[in-house]
Design brief:
The chain is built from eleven helices and 18 strands. The chain has about 375 residues and is an alpha/beta fold. It has three domains: about 5-65 and about 85-145 and about 235-295, FAD/NAD(P)-binding domain (3-Layer(bba) Sandwich); about 150-230, 2-Layer Sandwich (D-Amino Acid Oxidase, Chain A, domain 2), CATH 3.30.9.10; about 295-380, no CATH class. A seven-stranded mixed sheet has the order 6-5-11-12-13-10-14, sandwiched between helices. A six-stranded mixed sheet has the order 8-2-1-9-16-15, sandwiched between helices. Strand 17 (about 355) and strand 18 (about 360) form a beta hairpin. The protein is globular and about 55 Å long.
Length: about 375
């Protein structure tokens, strides 16, 4: 008889876990407190820098060809070799729901699961996958310590964003470790927000900083059609398997500590959780996550610390080394070899970083220096 699996939470990670588990022959029920594809809280940028996931099955607004990143100087980061899309998450998640249902997954929407219901699921199901986000259900069930989070705020604006099609924009500020963003969905709608990922000056308020950013960018007169916000995990949980429960995505603290994106890591961890259960080796799930995602998150945490503790001019120099010129002089190559973060950022931008399900992070395409740095990061404990 097929193992019974309950997936709680139908965001990207929960949907990928449910779809993968059902496709592997498991008896899967997916629970969500709302309607799948509604109440999206996300900038809706899909970064798959490891090139391990297929393109979204629906809802692609456009592939991102360029990131405009402003520090002191403004850098145009070529993304043509990277897998980054702007997506309509509502359309995408509804398509994933249909795929999961077609594979035999039972879907229960508008059903809130609390501690009492969770204990009942423990009796009825062989395994539970917790995909309930940063303030996850498991945290109250198992009395888990909180993880470090970044506060964010975002408005969805209607106005003229025609100049942003094919691009996204991020702007750093000397008063805090974090950035403001403009992520367009089409020529007339964009998600515009701000988040703090590290230390900041006292007395700052997110809403005030966002309004100041809108003024500087000439967006203050645009219509606000949606306001959202909330915490994003920027540190991993030390443990992600408890009894018969596996934590994925934000529940496991798997979002990027550098930019806050977590769609890719949620999907990857959902797939890995489903496969571990199907192989009757759930105890190997954490190691599989570390093998594929760990070094990427270690790298991003390392760069975040440089950003957080360097002065703004030094961070601008790091970005100049990483993104400033297409052609690298001999002197710049020497500087890159001495600046590990810049070396890796340049090689990530080139599209040479990738992973596969069997080998984990693949380093074959990296130059010697970058390869040695990544090998070191792969040995770094979370």
């Amino acid at each position: 008889m097929a193992k019974k699996v309950a997936v709680i939470g139908a965001g990207p990670g929960g949907l990928y876990a449910a779809k993968e588990a059902a496709g592997l022959g498991l008896n899967v029920t997916l629970f969500d407190k709302g309607k799948i594809g509604e109440n999206i809280v996300c900038a809706e940028g899909f970064f798959d820098l490891l090139k391990i996931l297929p393109p979204p099955v629906a809802g692609i607004c456009f592939p991102v060809e360029e990131i405009v990143f402003s520090v002191i100087d403004t850098f145009l980061i070529d993304c043509s070799q990277l897998h980054i899309w702007m997506i309509d998450r509502s359309k995408w998640q509804k398509a994933l729901k249909a795929e999961a249902a077609a594979l035999g997954c039972k879907i229960e929407e508008q059903l809130s699961i609390g501690p009492k219901e969770f204990r009942q699921l423990e009796k009825e199901f062989d395994w539970i996958i917790d995909a309930t986000g940063v303030q996850c259900l498991s945290s109250s069930i198992y009395h888990l310590p909180p993880v470090r989070t970044a506060p964010t705020i975002q408005y969805t604006l209607e106005g003229d964003f025609t100049s942003f099609i094919g691009k996204i924009k991020a702007v750093a500020d000397p008063r805090y470790c974090g950035y403001a963003w403009i992520f367009p969905q089409n020529a007339y709608v964009a998600n515009v927000g701000l988040g703090w990922f590290g230390k900041r000056e006292k007395g700052l308020q997110l809403r005030n900083e966002l309004h100041s950013f809108l003024q500087r960018e000439g967006l203050a007169h645009y219509d606000v059609v949606k306001r959202v916000g909330g915490p994003i995990p920027v540190a991993r949980r030390q443990k992600i398997v408890f009894n018969k429960t596996l934590l994925i995505g934000d529940a496991a603290g798997l979002s990027s500590p550098l930019h806050g994106g977590g769609i890719d890591t949620a999907c990857i961890s959902g797939i890995l959780a489903a496969r571990a259960i199907a192989q009757q080796q759930p105890q190997h799930y954490a190691a599989a996550v570390e093998k594929i995602i760990g070094a990427k998150l270690n790298l991003e945490e390392k760069i975040l610390k440089v950003w957080e503790y360097a002065d703004f001019a030094a961070f601008n120099k790091l970005c100049a080394l990483s993104f400033g010129q297409k052609e690298t002089t001999f002197l710049q190559k020497m500087l890159l070899s001495l600046t590990q973060e810049a070396a890796i950022l340049q090689y990530v931008q080139s599209g040479k970083l990738r992973a596969d399900w069997q080998r984990g992070l693949v380093l074959d395409d990296l130059p010697f220096i970058a390869k040695k740095i990544m090998q070191k990061l792969m040995k770094t404990a979370p």
